Amino acid sequence: MFSCPSCATKTPGSFCAKCGEKRAGTDDYSVRHYLRELAADFTSIDSKLVRSIWLLLSKPGFLSGEYFEGRRVRYIKPLQMFVFLNVVYYFSLSWFVATTFTTPLATQLHMNNYYPAYAKHQVELKLQHEGIRYEALEKKYDETTGVLSKTLMVVFIPIFAAVFYVLFFRKRKYLVEHVIVATHFWSFNLVLLGVILPIIVIAGSRALKLVHVSTSVFTSDAVSSAVLQFCIGVYLFLMLRRFYRASTWYCFLSASIIAWSFFHLVWLYRFCLLQVTLRAI
Q1: Could you list the mean pLDDT of each consecutive 10-residue stretch along the chain, which spans 281 residues?
Q2: Could you give the CA distance from residue 252 to residue 247 in angstroms, rounded to a whole number?
Q3: Using CA atoms, how far apart are residues 19 and 161, in angstroms rounded to an integer?
Q4: Are 141 and 277 in contact (CB under 8 A)?
Q5: 3-class DSSP state for residue 10?
Q6: How many CA atoms does the CB half-sphere of 222 hold within 13 Å?
Q7: Which label site among 60, 182, 213, 251 has the fewest CB atoms less than 10 Å from its CB?
Q8: Do the beta carbons of residue 31 and residue 16 sit within 8 Å?
């Protein structure tokens, strides 16, 4: 019998019957015990992560279904996976340059078909207020937006949760169910953008260079965007069918609409990023 140090419950055995706290002993002070626990924790996290990412890619919508069926112990939590893959995505930018989400100031001003006049006006106001040259502002902006974009990626989750809520309103699901689906969907997007597409582009470009063929097919923005939208459309169709159990034609239509509007929603994120970055510098 021991008194639990966490909840003060008296219980027999080595574990508290109320909160599960383990009874402390002399073994807890040994290096062997520390290494054994470290190995067990690492193996548990590693196996959960690998299993979760594999199912995320191979069975769209499966993890969301498992979550609400109450089978959660074997998988990493949705938001934890999103955060981990977000780190992987931004690490991949060090060897595969992409400005889809970082969006430097030049992109906001010169590759913007949504709010170019507004962006230019906001930048001019910032230049007047700070009393600095454009080059100095651009440098500060690009450095700051690169950091902020890592945090603001989470904005996509409520945006797509709202989209799923509207499209599948008749299914009478709780809002949090749409949030979990959106979290898993964006976790897939991070794998697609941060791992799969970079590998394809780099491997394909090197293969074409070996046979002295132009690599423009892999570096073209139009081609990359089309491939990205196609992958998103296919994944979404399978995900929506498995989780929402809607008709084939409705899931196909919904996936097509979302895939087509993907970059429009990205520009909504970029608008938010512009506002936050200009206020942060």
Answers
A1: 77 77 71 66 70 94 94 90 88 67 85 90 91 91 86 87 94 93 94 82 74 64 77 95 94 94 86 91 84
A2: 9
A3: 34
A4: yes
A5: strand
A6: 2
A7: 213
A8: no
pTM check: above 0.90: no
Nearest by Cα to 15 from 26, 30, 4, 29: 4
Question: Taking Cα atoms as reference points, which of 268, 257, 261, 76 lies closest to residue 155?
Answer: 268
Size of the chain in residues:
281
Calculate ∠ Cα 193-194-199, nearest 5°. Answer: 90
pLDDT at 7 (0 to 100): 80
Rounded distance, CA 206 to CA 219, Å? 12
Structure tokens at 146: 């690169």
185: exposed, middle or buried (C-beta count within 10 Å: 0-12, 13-18, 19+)? Answer: buried
pLDDT at 29: 65
The amino acid at 63: L
pLDDT at 264: 86
| Phi–psi pair at 17, nearest 5 degrees | -70, -20
Strand partners, 10: 3
Tell me what pLDDT residue 155 has: 86
Residues 6+ apart with CB under 8 A from 180: 64, 67, 68, 78
**SS3 assignment, position 194:** helix
Distances (CA, A) of 198 to 50, 94, 153, 190: 20, 11, 19, 11
End-to-end CA distance of the chain: 59
Contact 270, 248 (CB under 8 A): no
Please give the Cα distance from 35 to 41 (Å, whole number). 10
DSSP code of 24?
P
